Target: Superoxide dismutase [Cu-Zn]
Amino acid sequence: MKSFYILPLLAFLFSCHVHFCGSLSGLVYASNPVSPPVSSNSLRAVCRMRPNTQLKPEMPCVYGHVFFKQSGPKEKLSVTFRLHGLPVYSQQPRAMHIHEYGDLSKGCGSTGGHYNPLGVNHPQHPGDFGNFVPVNGKIRLSMNSSATLFGRLSILGRSVVIHEGEDDLGRGGNVGSLLNGNAGGRLACCVIGLANPQN
Ligand SMILES: *[C@@H]1O[C@H](CO)[C@@H](O)[C@H](O)[C@H]1NC(C)=O
Ligand SMILES: [Cu+2]
Ligand SMILES: [Zn+2]
Model:
């Protein structure tokens, strides 16, 4: 008769409803405090590019990484693009920008517009990287950028978007030109996160 009561109790205790994982991870966090990167005078970030989950059919699937490195708040930010997946014989220039949100919940569509903390016109946004003509379907180059990883204007947690088309660099003579350069659809995007210093 007793086992009639005990068995359901045991089943309950060892079921998923007992939040074993939650309490375990709580312990792990408590014993491993993570120090914020404020003490470091050099910061690196990385963005893992993946095709837009809402990609239009027939569009290329762009993969790769964008690497960011800055040796101090007053130093220049170096940005290295290592992307592939564009059509091998295409010379189509592709625009690349930093967008406001690191939110990919609705694909690249939820990253918002250009990151524009100072309320200026395109192409004066800190993440207006310009146009990239792929070589053998790849974009591999480094540039200096006016964006920063430090302080209130940090691009950490924002996103990088590569577009279908060319950026008109504000010369399009319409509203879109001064907002986003009329670069067309969003091929791929990624969220800018802190790089692991051990990598
Ligand atoms: C970036 O700036 C540094 C320092 O001014 C310079 O040495 C370097 O050549 C620049 N890199 C590029 C890719 O322009
Ligand atoms: Cu963009
Ligand atoms: Zn812009």
